[in-house]
Automatic annotation (TrEMBL):
Pfam families: zf-C2H2. Keywords: Metal-binding, Nucleus, Repeat, Transcription, Transcription regulation, Zinc, Zinc-finger. Residues 362-382 have a biased composition (Polar residues). Residues 20-54, 360-385 are annotated as: Disordered. This is C2H2-type domain-containing protein. Signal peptide: none annotated. Gene3D superfamilies: Classic Zinc Finger.
Length: 479
């Protein structure tokens, strides 16, 4: 007897798909065999299908390794996507506008913004409305506007205003229930009154409230692991605790204020090594040929002189662009920017060290007539003052000028050691220890006063506190 074929559809894998799980059963001539065989063949697939429907959720085994983050995921790919939010890596770039994103789904959503409006699949069915949307959720939210539905209610106590759109509620909160000038996106952190016009700016600001946002990875700090809330605080820690230093033993750990200075210093060591190798090679050649050694090398060596003067007939070369610029100003343009401060002296110099030499030799109490060698170095003519004022050396002149400046309200005397009003109440209850007399320095700016206190007296005070003290002192001083 011919074999019959029957088809039984168990279930569909996804809603809206036409292809389902189909089981083909071969029927024999005997009805009993058909029933038994169908039951035996259906028992296992049905059991496996029920397991799929009733299987528990997968365990989340992949935890974020960053400290302070409790995120856990079921797949390594999801964890890798999340880790990009910590590292800032954005591998998915838009080919049209070069914007970059953390996830491929975000890039796909952004790519739709470059497509025409007609490509949006969900169109509004309201007569006269031609708007189209990418998702059904956006279409549903738009349809609520046509129906007059308002689902965004003000959460402020005693306010019963309701709005159709979320941005209308935000505008209402910042104009009615907030101080004037408040922007829609407000920071809810305790004690913070900042607000922003964009949610992206608010999210970036919220990271500043994280006390463990930045950490020091220096070898000496790995055990204590200090944290910092701002980038500037971390940089201040690096400059004060781990300043850049030269690793060469002959420099005895020379310290620099910035990495730029250290790089320039390391370049000098490299040039010295190359210079030493060249000198050794030249010495060997001179020894083999019984010739005299070349002339004494120039200051700074011959290596690294990449900046050559372009003036015809001038073959001088320099190690930096700044040195070449100064050479052009002084030698070829004849500029003399360093002028002798004495009124009866007309000397001017192209270099600062020449001016200092002139002041020492010509305007000191033991002045001697200038020699021919000095005149050739200066390449200038002028008068010579009779003598140097002794009051300038002892500081009497400065004291006299300071007393004259103190007659006006624009100038302030350094308050050290009596820093009442500048330090915290607990720290300013008494005078600074080890100070026996008042400081005689006078300033006209709060900036200069703050630098003076930090450099001379070792007292570091906040900028706002110094400015407020100066303003209050000026307001209380009669003009």
């Amino acid at each position: 007897m011919s074999t019959l074929s029957s088809t039984i559809i168990l279930r569909k894998r996804k809603r809206g798909q036409d292809d389902g799980l189909v089981l083909h059963l071969a029927s024999s001539s005997s009805p009993e065999n058909d029933v038994s065989s169908s039951e035996s063949e259906l028992s296992e697939p049905l059991a496996s299908t029920s397991k799929l429907l009733q299987s528990p959720k997968r365990k989340k085994r992949y935890a974020c390794p960053f400290e302070g983050c409790d995120k856990v995921y079921t797949k390594p790919s999801r964890l890798a996507e999340h880790e990009r939010s910590h590292t800032g890596d954005r591998p998915f770039a838009c080919v049209t506008c070069d914007k970059r994103y953390l996830r491929e789904s975000h890039l796909q959503a952004h790519s739709r913004s470059h497509l025409p409006t007609s490509a949006r699949p969900f169109a509004c069915a309201e007569p006269g409305c031609e708007k189209r949307f990418w998702t059904a959720q956006h279409l549903q939210s738009h349809s609520e506007v046509h129906r007059g539905e308002k689902r965004y209610q003000c959460t402020h106590p005693g306010c019963e205003e309701i709005f159709a759109k979320h941005h209308q509620l935000r505008d209402h909160l910042c104009t009615v229930h907030a101080p004037p000038g408040t922007k829609p996106y407000q920071c809810e952190h305790d004690g913070c009154t900042k607000s922003f016009s964009m949610n992206q700016h608010l999210r970036a600001h919220l990271r500043t409230h994280d006390e463990k946002r930045y950490t020091c990875i220096h070898v000496s700090c790995l055990s204590s692991q200090p944290y910092f809330a701002t980038w500037s605080a971390l940089q201040h820690h690096m400059r004060s605790v781990h300043p850049p230093s030269c690793p060469h033993p002959e420099c005895n750990g020379k310290i620099f204020t910035a990495q730029k200075g250290l790089r320039a210093h390391m370049k000098i060591h490299e040039q010295r090594n190359v210079e030493a190798e060249l000198q050794a090679a030249l010495a060997e050649v001179a020894a083999d040929s019984d010739n005299e050694l070349p002339r004494k090398r120039r200051r700074g060596g011959e290596v690294g002189r990449d900046w050559v003067c372009a003036v015809s007939g001038c073959n001088k070369d320099f190690k930096s662009k700044k040195a070449l610029t100064v050479h052009n100003k002084v030698t070829h343009l004849g500029l003399r920017e360093f002028v002798c401060p004495h009124e009866d002296c007309d000397y001017a110099f192209g270099y600062k060290h020449l001016l200092q030499r002139h002041l020492t030799k010509q305007h000191s109490t033991t002045a001697e007539p200038p020699s021919n060698e000095q005149g050739a170095d200066n390449q200038d003519t002028g008068k010579i003052s009779d003598a140097f004022n002794i009051d300038d050396i002892t500081g009497v002149s400065y004291d006299t000028r300071a007393k004259e400046m103190m007659q006006t309200s624009k100038h302030l005397q350094c308050p050290h050691p009596h820093l009442h009003g500048l330090l915290e109440p607990s720290a300013s209850s008494s005078s600074m220890p080890g100070a026996s007399r008042n400081c005689d320095y006078v300033f006209s700016r709060a900036y200069d006063l703050r630098r003076h206190l930090r450099a001379i007296h070792g007292v570091d005070i906040e900028k706002d506190r110094v400015e407020n003290w100066v303003k209050a002192h000026r307001d209380s001083t009669p003009v």
